[in-house]
């Protein structure tokens, strides 16, 4: 590409970024990082093809200013932890709402497959849940305690074991995204089919009301597995669809963004583990109004933090960002 064409193609982007830096406009850190990566890509291209040009000098200067801006932005943060949970992550996650929707649809498709298969084939639930679990559940039902499995073990031991296992599942859902997103979809389908089979199994036994005990902790647990799946798709899709970046740069960005999403789920998995270890064991004796109150509150917390709050925060964020077009 001729230098004139290169400048013409990127001029508007560079000018927009330069104005933002010179006018001391406050830019979202993720946007700033994205613009900086684009700028360094352009700088590398200019170094290769226009080594003695004024374009190279200009881009060197602009990159230096951007680097100082990024460094200064990092120093301004007084409480990174609070800022991450309250502002940075919700604003960041807004861009992945569509990916979250696709993840949810994948998962619900699997739930439907598990449910329909269990309705039409009595042996399917044994194939999915295992003979041991099904036989144990039937025995518990005969003893009048269909949810006795959640009363076994100590509260603290159950809390720790369940939390660690849930985090392991989330990490797997994310990490398997490296297999071009197919691995994450597999984890989502596996867990979705398990859930669909489990719920339908109790429905066929006329015990669907008893599953409210499971949803005490399962509302958060299942929701966050879906969110971890979203993280895996973010990473996997970044390699499949690199957009304007090289595949290496795009994958690194996707892996970083996906990891940030996974980190956000850890407190919720701890919450789900606490409920399962200390509250679910009393679910059958608990008044229905309290049980459903916990379920609906759990659902509201997840929906609000990951969907509603990012939208509200995005609308309230009236700090202008530079209008920079990507190449």
From TrEMBL:
Among PANTHER family, the record links this protein to:
SLR1478 PROTEIN
A Pfam family reported for this protein in Swiss-Prot or TrEMBL: SpoIIM
Q: Does the keyword Membrane apply?
A: yes
Instruction: Write out the entry's keywords from A to Z.
Output: Membrane, Transmembrane, Transmembrane helix
InterPro entries assigned: SpoIIM-like
Q: What is this protein called?
A: Stage II sporulation protein M
Which positions make up the signal peptide?
none
Domain of life, per lineage? Bacteria
Origin organism lineage: Bacteria, Pseudomonadati, Bacteroidota, Flavobacteriia, Flavobacteriales
Record-annotated membrane-spanning stretches: 100-119, 156-178, 185-203, 215-240, 261-283, 289-308
Q: Does the keyword Transmembrane helix apply?
A: yes
């Amino acid at each position: 590409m001729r230098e004139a064409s290169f400048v013409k193609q990127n001029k508007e982007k560079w000018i927009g970024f330069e104005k933002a830096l010179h006018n001391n406009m406050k830019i979202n850190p993720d946007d700033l990082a994205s613009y900086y990566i684009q700028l360094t890509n352009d700088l590398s291209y200019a170094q290769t093809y226009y080594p003695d040009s004024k374009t190279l000098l200009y881009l060197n200067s602009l990159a230096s200013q951007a680097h100082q801006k990024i460094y200064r932005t990092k120093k301004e943060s007084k409480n990174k932890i609070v800022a991450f949970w309250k502002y940075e992550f919700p604003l960041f996650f807004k861009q992945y709402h569509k990916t979250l929707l696709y993840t949810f649809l994948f998962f619900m498709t699997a739930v439907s497959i598990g449910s329909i298969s269990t309705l039409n084939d009595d042996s399917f639930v044994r194939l999915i849940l295992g003979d041991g679990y099904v036989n144990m559940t039937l025995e518990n039902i005969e003893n009048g305690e269909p949810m006795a499995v959640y009363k076994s073990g100590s509260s603290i031991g159950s809390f720790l074991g369940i939390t660690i296992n849930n985090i392991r599942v989330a990490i797997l859902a994310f990490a398997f995204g490296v297999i071009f997103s197919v691995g994450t979809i597999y984890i989502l389908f596996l867990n979705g089919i398990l859930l669909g089979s489990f719920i339908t199994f109790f429905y066929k036994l006329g015990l669907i009301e008893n599953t409210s005990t499971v949803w005490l902790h399962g509302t958060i647990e299942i929701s966050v597995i879906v969110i971890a799946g979203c993280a895996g798709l973010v990473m996997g899709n970044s390699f499949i669809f690199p957009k304007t970046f090289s595949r290496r740069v795009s994958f690194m960005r996707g892996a970083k963004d996906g990891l940030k999403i996974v980190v956000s789920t850890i407190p919720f998995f701890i919450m789900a583990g606490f409920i399962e270890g200390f509250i679910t064991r009393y679910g059958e004796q608990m008044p229905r109004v309290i049980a459903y109150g916990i379920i609906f509150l759990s659902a509201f917390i997840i929906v609000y933090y990951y969907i509603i709050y990012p939208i509200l925060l995005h609308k309230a964020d009236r700090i202008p960002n530079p209008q920079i077009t990507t190449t």
